[in-house]
Design a protein that fits this description.
The chain contains 14 helices and 17 strands. It has about 525 residues and is of the alpha+beta class. It folds into two domains: about 280 residues, CHASE domain (Beta-Lactamase); about 160 residues, Alpha-Beta Plaits (2-Layer Sandwich), CATH 3.30.70.270. Helix 1 crosses helix 5. It is flat.
Length: about 525
């Protein structure tokens, strides 16, 4: 016979049962919430991984497109060089020069030869052109898009020859100066003497109204005859390439584009947003504009383009796994998944920290000279000023500037200018060698030395000046000497004497300015008297 439990024990057990159930339900709800939160977190992490993979694909596509554009521009540059060797250009010679190139370059719609013609020489020009093309006339398009004879304007740029002429007959005789975008590029090319691209245009000879652009390369030749001579001015002609943006895309990334990617090539020169090429979006797809990847392209004959790809939601869904749902549905594997995720996250964090440390190092270093950059200089100057404040010591600042460096760059070229900056930096680094001394590239051709608690900073600056002069870097365009020299301004202040860090920089800069005013290639030390006499 079972013993009878006391009433109080039964009541306590009955009272505890609902509490246990409630606690169990709460723990179950919390567990479900935890797994749901974990599943959501994993879902987002997977989204980020998919986006990174997609971004890497787009980067490769942008690089391929960039290479294709550069290759075609180099083809035009090479053709221009070849044409410049021909004394008299004729349609047959132009055909011979361009035939093989056009056969191998589908993105190039045509090569054309255009010439600047004035109203006074227009009739003579058309007459001479009819010797080659009996029906030749200089024409333009009116507001309705019809081809009509040109109206009077200060100058014309008619297409004189074009290849392949069979598919570009409509462009023969077309006045490039009759359309604002072509005219702007023509004038810029003529003024600069460089290769210049137009903004996006609708090609005259393209029946499908495909967007394209023209690239002009100028040549300045003697007049063909006296009738076309304008004083002593040379005859201006242009070898221009007609490029189809769509074909550039097809040649570079066409095989790697799927219907789940919407690509746009956009011209953003001077703030414009001109879409040069766009793949037609599938209306049945949902496009993830928030995941759009944009890559800026380098200079395209004076134009700034960017490459933009937007993914479809289906592209992301196809690349997703079932891991988040398995985590949510199966609590038995959540610990294993969490441990794996922690290890992966830890490794990613380590890599990120390593990358962050390297980025921090790079962000404090001038990439050309290897010296501290402006950011590092500002930080170190503030730290040493604070240290001088605590120790009641002096802090010296030397500002140095390479004399007449702009003419050096202009005449010898930027590569030589960069080499000179590197040698100057190396010499300065050898002068300031104490642990707390800092040599920085302040900006351009300007350098700075931070010298804490230095007995004779002017002597340090003079040593720098002599070292630079001793490099004997030839500088025929200097107003100071036949070699590269520097001017220096020195200032020493004690924070305890109610001076500010801003004054230290300003006074050193004033001394540098005074050194330049006094003839350069010298060291000037800031004094209180000079400071009081500043105008």
């Amino acid at each position: 016979m079972q013993p009878v439990r006391p009433f109080t024990e039964v009541a306590s057990t009955a009272k505890a049962s609902p509490i246990i159930r409630i606690v169990t339900l709460i723990l179950a709800a919390l567990s479900i919430f935890m797994f749901a939160a974990l599943a959501r977190f994993l879902y987002q992490a997977e989204t980020n991984a998919i986006h990174q993979s997609f971004a890497a694909e787009v980067a490769q596509q942008a690089l391929s497109f960039e290479r294709e554009v550069v290759l075609n521009l180099e083809i035009l540059f090479a053709l221009n060089a070849s044409v410049s060797l021909v004394e008299t250009m004729t349609p047959d010679r132009f055909d011979q020069l361009t035939d093989d190139v056009l056969a191998r370059s589908p993105a190039i719609q045509a090569f054309a030869w255009a010439q600047i013609v004035t109203p006074e020489t227009l009739a003579a020009f058309e007459s001479r052109m009819r010797d080659w093309y009996p029906s030749y006339r200089v024409s333009e398009r009116n507001a309705s898009g019809e081809v009509v004879p040109v109206s009077l304007r200060p100058q014309y740029a008619p297409v004189q020859m074009i290849e392949p002429i069979e598919s570009n007959q409509a462009a023969l005789g077309f006045d490039l100066a009759s359309e604002s975008r072509r005219l702007a590029a023509l004038l810029q090319s003529m003024e600069s003497g460089k290769m210049v691209a137009t903004a996006g245009i609708t090609l005259v000879q393209e029946p499908e109204n495909q967007r394209g652009f023209l690239v002009f390369t100028p040549q300045f030749l003697p007049p063909v005859n006296e009738r076309e001579a304008i004083g002593n001015e040379p005859r201006v002609v242009f070898v221009n390439g007609v490029f189809r943006v769509g074909e550039l895309v097809n040649q570079s990334v066409g095989s790697r584009l799927s219907q789940q990617m919407q690509l746009q090539v956009v011209d953003r020169t001077r703030g414009a947003q001109d879409v040069l090429y766009s793949t037609p979006p599938d209306p049945s797809e949902h496009w993830l504009t928030s995941q759009t990847v944009v890559h800026d392209l380098p200079d395209v004959a004076g134009r700034q383009w960017y490459f933009e790809v937007t993914p479809a939601a289906s592209l992301y869904s196809q690349r997703r796994s079932y891991v988040p749902w398995l985590v949510f549905g199966s609590g038995t594997v959540v610990v294993v998944l969490l441990v794996i995720y922690v290890f992966v996250t830890q490794r990613q964090t380590q890599d990120l920290n390593a990358a962050k440390s390297e980025l921090e190092r790079i962000s404090l270093t001038d990439s050309l000279t290897g010296l501290a950059n402006r950011r590092h200089f500002d930080q170190h100057l503030e730290q040493q000023w604070a240290l001088a404040t605590r120790q009641h010591s002096a802090l010296s600042l030397v500002m140095l500037d390479i004399d007449n460096f702009k003419p050096y760059n202009d005449e010898y070229g930027h590569p030589e200018g960069d080499a000179a900056l590197e040698q100057v930096a190396k010499a300065l680094r050898q002068v300031a060698t104490r642990p707390l001394d800092l040599v920085a590239r302040y900006g351009g051709e300007e350098f700075a030395l931070i010298l804490p608690d230095t007995e004779d900073p002017a002597d340090v600056a003079e040593t720098c000046r002599r070292r630079i002069e001793a490099l004997a870097l030839r500088h025929d365009y200097s107003s100071v000497a036949q070699v590269v020299t520097i001017s220096a301004g020195v200032c020493t202040l004690k924070p305890s004497e109610n001076h500010s860090l801003k004054e230290l920089t300003e006074f050193a800069d004033d001394a540098l300015y005074q050194a330049k005013e006094e003839g350069r290639n010298r060291v000037v030390v800031y004094s209180a008297e000079r400071g009081l006499n500043r105008g």
